[in-house]
Structures are given as structure tokens and as C-alpha cells.
Design goal:
Blueprint: E1 3-7, H1 15-32, E2 35-39, H2 45-56, H3 62-86, E3 91-94, E4 101-103, E5 112-115, H4 118-125, E6 129-133, E7 136-138, E8 144-146, H5 151-163, E9 166-171, E10 192-194, H6 195-203, H7 211-220, E11 224-228, E12 238-241, E13 253-268, H8 273-284, E14 290-296, E15 302-308, H9 310-323, E16 328-341, H10 351-361, E17 366-372, E18 375-381, H11 385-395
Parallel strand pairs: 1-2, 1-9, 2-6, 3-6, 9-11, 10-12
Antiparallel strand pairs: 4-5, 7-8, 11-12, 13-15, 13-16, 14-15, 16-18, 17-18
Helix pairs in contact: 1-3, 2-3, 5-7, 6-7, 10-11
Length: 403
């Protein structure tokens, strides 16, 4: 069985780093057998391409933007293939189209519908290392599409699933930590984490892996590894796999989502139509909302609240005013959402009580609260983020207090 290596933009940001990555992959190919690669655009290339499009001015056509952004990954994989060839390793660069990644036609957020693996498999069978451009595919009409933020992770895991291989994702972090080490210096690195916990942490703000990639890994049983680029010792990273035990740690980690705004709709008339009309606007604007709650008042009216990004909140307030909807919308800015995540919550009671007690002791006010089977999410003022996260991490044993 082979392995898919994925390298993020920081790992291939310069020619020197590309040569170093090629050297590492060459060693794997010589020592362990078949290997395929997926790479992101070099360094800040994607941001630079977006800025170039902005300089053109006017309304940016989403099809053309995807076509432009796809060139970043194509440059990287071509250089990687050249570097491998210089080391005596047969290699070939492939765009998303050449690799058979078929997607729907939602530009900038396309979903993979199928991978026609024959071309990739042909090169593997011929002893070549296929070097795939991450983040991209092609729709039924032949248009280049991109998979959205973190799309190269999704490319790599989907390829591994199709080949029946393991997937190793290399980046600029050592693995998955219980909490952001930049906030809590004593944060602990996890040797393993379950698919469900990693999906929950990713969806709630942990930026180390893209949520869809973990979902694919779970669905197709891909053994997933996350570690620092060029690190040969795989015991130093984190494996994402099936859960082994829910008993040891009721809370596995804390995720943090910045840029959270609470929107409140007050004076909603009784009935379902007003709520439906509000969510029609939300859907029309393609806004993702979270932490939804509704309260009915004694006079028969209602109040609804939910969270979203600050930019989306502004769009919603403007559009609701333009449409003249029969209720008032207000927003509370400057919030962050912190989430305790752990599959052990299924078998442990009292997690919520302990979390609220910790926040009360720390004198941190909190607002909206939502729960799932394996998470508790709370919005707090951004200024209290570090204090609250550190207090919770210490209380649940997620950091080394002697560090």
C-alpha cells in the first residue's frame, strides 16, 4: 500500500523548501514504495492572485477567479515534479482536470463528485510519482473549479480514499494540540484524536485541518496523519482515526472561532411566517448561521438570535432594511466562540456545570450557549478570550500548568 503526502503553502513557499520536500518524498519513494503528492500554492500566492484580480476592478466573474486561482497550485506541482526528476525520481505534475477530479459547478466552493482515477493509476503503475495540484477540479462543462479554503487537504484525502492508501498531511505545526499553543503555552499535543472529535474541532474553529477532509477520511477509513514538514519520526505528529476510548479524557480540546457576531430579531409576530421570511433572506445572501435560539414572549411575539460573521451580519441588516421586513434586527459585535470538544462527553456528566463554574470564577460573562453530543459552545467577549481559554484548559487538564 502506498501513501499520499500533502504539503501546505508554507512548506513549499520557496525553491529551497520545494527542493527539501522533494528530497523527503524521494526518500519515501525509494524506501517505502508508491507515493503520490498533493500541494498547495507557494506561500502567499493565492492572496497575491486575489489582489491582482482586485486591481483589474469591477465585478469579478467567479468562473474567471477560479481559473486564476488554480494557477498557483499548478506552478507549485510543476516545480516539485522538476525537483523530483532532478533527484532521479520519475514524477509527473497533474492539474485537477488531468487527475480526474470532477466537481459540481459551485465556483470557489465546489464539491468533489467523483475522481476518475485511471490517469493517476497509470502513472503510479509506471513507477512515477504523480504530483497533483490541490484545491481544484473541473465541472461537467469543462470549467475549472476550486474547492474553497483548505481544499488541498480535501484533494489529498479524497485521492487517498480512491487509491485505498494512507494520507499524511504536512504543514508548519507539529500536530493537533488540545488548545492553541499561542494562547496557552502549556498546551498538550495529541498523539491520536478520533475522526468525530477532529471534525467537531475543525468545524468550530480549529484551523489545522479542513472539515471536509476529515469527513472523507472517516467515511472511507483513511488513516490520516498530521505533522510538521520534513519530520521523519511519525510518532511526533497526530493520527486521526477511529475512536479508541471515551473514558480517559471527557474533553479532548478547545476550539476558538474568531469574528463572531450575534444577531437578534426582536418583535417577531406570532407564527412561523416571520421566521421563515428572515431565513429566506439569510439563504438568498448565502450566509451560514450558528447557535440559533428562539424565545416566545408573553405578548405572543418572539425573539430570535443566532451568530454569524461580522461581514455577514452587516449584509443581513442592510438587506433586511431594504426589504422592509416587519421586525428589528440588532447585532452584538466583538465576540468569539469557544468550544469544548470531546467524545468522552457522551459518558461523562457535569461537563457543562464545570465549564460554567470555571467561567464564573474567572469573572468571564458569556452569552449564547449551544451543545452537541460531543461539544459545548459558548460566546464571550473577544477581550476575555485568552483568560477564558486558559482557565478552561487548566480546569480540564488540557495544558501543562508547570510550563
Amino acid at each position: 500500500m502506498g501513501v499520499v503526502h500533502k504539503y501546505g503553502g508554507s512548506s513549499v513557499a520557496t525553491i529551497e523548501k520545494i527542493k527539501a520536500v522533494a528530497q523527503r518524498v524521494a526518500e519515501v519513494a525509494r524506501e517505502n514504495g508508491p507515493v503520490a503528492m498533493v500541494a498547495s500554492a507557494m506561500g502567499k500566492t493565492t492572496n497575491e492572485l486575489i489582489a491582482l484580480a482586485g486591481e483589474i476592478g469591477g465585478e469579478i466573474n467567479p468562473r474567471e477567479m477560479d481559473s486564476l486561482l488554480s494557477t498557483g497550485e499548478q506552478k507549485t506541482v510543476t516545480l516539485l515534479a522538476m525537483a523530483l526528476q532532478n533527484l532521479g525520481i520519475p514524477a509527473i505534475s497533474l492539474t485537477g482536470f488531468q487527475a480526474g477530479f470532477l466537481t459540481n459547478r459551485i465556483f470557489s466552493h465546489a464539491k468533489i463528485q467523483d475522481i476518475q482515477i485511471a490517469n493517476v493509476q497509470k502513472h503510479i503503475d509506471a513507477g512515477r510519482v504523480p504530483v497533483l495540484a490541490g484545491f481544484q477540479g473541473i465541472d461537467a462543462d469543462g470549467n475549472i473549479t476550486t474547492l474553497g479554503r483548505g481544499g488541498s487537504d480535501t484533494t489529498a484525502v479524497a485521492l487517498a480514499a480512491k487509491l485505498g492508501w494512507d494520507c499524511e498531511i504536512y504543514t508548519d505545526v507539529d500536530g493537533v494540540y488540545t488548545v492553541d499553543p499561542r494562547i496557552c503555552s502549556g498546551a498538550l499535543k495529541l498523539r491520536t484524536i478520533s475522526y468525530d472529535e477532529m471534525m467537531e474541532m475543525a468545524s468550530l474553529g480549529a484551523g489545522v485541518l479542513e472539515t471536509r477532509s476529515v469527513e472523507i477520511a472517516k467515511k472511507y477509513g483513511v488513516r490520516l496523519f498530521l505533522g510538521r514538514s520534513l519530520e521523519k519520526d511519525l510518532t511526533k505528529g497526530t493520527y486521526i482515526m477511529d475512536a479508541t476510548s471515551f473514558e480517559d479524557m471527557p474533553v479532548t480540546g478547545i476550539s476558538i472561532k474568531q469574528d463572531c457576531t450575534t444577531v437578534r430579531a426582536s418583535g417577531l409576530p406570532a407564527g412561523t411566517l416571520p421566521v421563515s421570511s428572515l431565513f429566506d433572506v439569510i439563504a438568498d445572501l448565502d450566509i451560514n448561521v450558528d447557535m440559533i435560539s428562539r424565545q416566545m414572549l408573553d405578548d405572543g411575539s418572539g425573539m430570535l438570535s443566532f451568530s454569524c460573521s461580522g461581514a455577514d451580519a452587516e449584509k443581513l441588516l442592510q438587506e433586511s432594511g431594504r426589504r422592509g421586513l416587519p421586525y428589528s434586527l440588532t447585532q452584538q459585535k466583538g465576540l468569539v466562540k469557544i468550544s469544548l470538544v470531546g467524545a468522552g462527553m457522551i459518558t461523562h456528566s457535569g461537563i457543562s456545570a464545570k465549564a460554567f463554574s470555571v467561567l464564573n470564577t474567572a469573572k468571564v460573562p458569556y452569552y449564547q450557549i449551544t451543545t452537541s453530543e460531543i461539544s459545548i459552545s459558548i460566546t464571550i467577549d473577544e477581550e476575555n478570550r485568552d483568560h477564558a481559554v486558559t482557565a478552561l484548559a487548566e480546569a480540564f487538564g488540557l495544558c501543562d500548568t508547570n510550563n
